Amino acid sequence: MSEHPSTYVPKSGIEKWLDTRLPIVRFGADYLSLPTPKNLNYWYTFGGILTLCLVIQIATGIVLAMHYTPNTELAFASVERIMRDVNGGWLIRFVHANGASMFFIAVYLHMLRGLYYGSYKAPREMIWILGCVIFFLMIATAFLGYVLPWGQMSYWGAEVITNLIGAIPLIGEPILIWLRGGPAIDNATLNRFFSLHYLLPFVIFGVVVLHLWALHTSGQNNPVGILIPKDRQAKDMIPFHPYYTVKDGFAVLLFLILFSTFVFFMPDALGHADNYIPANPLQTPAHIVPEWYMLPFYAILRAIPDKFGGVVAMFGSIGVLFILPWLDTSRVRSMRYRPTMRAFFFIFVFVGLGLGWCGGQLPDAPVIGSFKTFTLIDGDLNSYLWLTRLFTAYYFAFFFIILPLVGLKETPLPIPASISEPVLSHPATVSGLVPAQAEKKG
Amino acid sequence: MAEPVVTTDGAHGPDGDDATRRDFIHIAAGAMAAGAGVMAVWPLVNQMNPAADTLALSTIEFDTSKVAEGQQVVITWQGKPVFVRNRTAAEIARVKADDNAGDLKEPQTDAERTKPGHEPMLVVIGSCTHLGCIPTFGTGDFGGWFCPCHGSHYDAAGRIRKGPAPKNLVVPDYEFTAGSTIKIG
Hints:
The structure holds two protein chains of two kinds.
Chain A: H1 13-19, H2 24-32, E1 35-37, H3 46-65, H4 75-84, H5 89-116, H6 125-147, H7 152-165, H8 172-180, H9 187-218, H10 233-236, E2 237-239, H11 240-265, H12 295-303, H13 307-319, H14 324-327, H15 339-359, E3 375-376, E4 379-380, H16 384-409, H17 421-424, H18 427-430, H19 437-440
Antiparallel strand pairs in A: 1-2, 3-4
Chain B: H1 8-12, H2 16-46, H3 52-56, E1 60-63, E2 72-77, E3 80-86, H4 89-97, H5 110-113, E4 121-125, E5 136-137, E6 143-147, E7 152-155, E8 160-162, E9 174-178, E10 181-184
Antiparallel strand pairs in B: 1-10, 2-3, 3-4, 5-6, 6-7, 7-8, 9-10
């Protein structure tokens, strides 16, 4: 909180000297002593995990750039050289490649946490919007990075995604040539993608600083979703360090175990085998799929029968997140106290996973074995095309219909006056036998 | 009328003339700065356009007599595949019969897509107009091409007949230079 008084007292001479010139140590100390709601659960540790992910990606990325060659003739071979000849290159590349997936796992959970506990609501809209900017930059960076190895899937992914720009009426085609630097994806494209892939993580880092600045200005939300009353702050708030540094540290360890499992035991599980074939502009892979974390958006793109419409829907599915704070009409933040909305939320999570699943399937393939139904407009009803459309409809309905309407219509459960109340009023907890019930939910 | 009459002299007061000059300087300086900004940004934008050596690769020649009847040859032009297809009489008859078919998204006759005197030879950029995949030869519902990625069907004149692609396969600028040799670009 911005009004949190600084408790830092410089001790050594050099600290005193520095404190009057650049109070950077004070800044760090204030950050660690920041009063934080004491009921944050493990869904709140992904902020710390994401910071770690960004640091890992930047550190491994800088090292990989020392060995990589952004040239269509040499890129594929330079990546293979990293894997075979550079000392420990295989490890660094696998950490970087799998790190991208871990980054997205963490960011999706972080976003769903924000959605569930209403972390985007006043006064925290700016934190949410900056988070959306980071998410958008992450997608762009991940796409640019995926193209760099110049494998078959890289090349054709770039072909398909840049072609989306060409769908814009009138100006699409000139912009496409401008973006690619030639009539087709070629050396100019690869070279500029490398340049931008190196740049954007530092832009992300800058926006992360703004994200945290906004967070520390408006204060952290918590699973109960209420503002902590002034007179309860001493009781309901604890310093960030050591309480949350230790809690986050434990979560980071679990996360690193998952990360290491992928890196050391199944490093290619999240990639696509076709990317070990050098790019061939004269042959399309049988089935072009993006990385798993883009599949839901790719599914939305394919669901719309019109090319430009598909592009609009895909960007709209990300763009809608930016206006989310104004779509939700409820005054209650946490979905713990919004039983109706909570049900719609879990359907939304299921639909998001479903869109990801559909994005990885051939659109014409039947969902249920060889079960034959009838053709509706341009596809069999029992096809991934129509299942995707069903999910896409719910995705947009969730934001534009369900959130505004349920917020107005539903009767939320009574919200507690303080974050301690649900814990203290629980009979089992008072007798000191069972941990807080509220901590276990959602 | 009782309202006070405002004169130009009264509006400016002692500093009136200076203020006008200062306004002029502000606007002029602002306009110059904006112009300079645009001029400084333009090279940064323009460098993204195709470079001279990329543009220099814009024409190629190809001898179409290498393509047997009923076959296609794929050549590379500007980094993109170009299909040169020598169509059979039956295929030509079929596409000509479909010249006025109702399912043409971008209506074009077969004659508009080929060169007079060279009807069997169809030259198109082999890139699906949906998202740029390379359609496969001789498949699909219309015997032309089929894009397996998202299911676009093209006929033997390269016209889109079914599926999400919005346009016909693009016919590049080309001409027959000598006999059977074509110059693309």
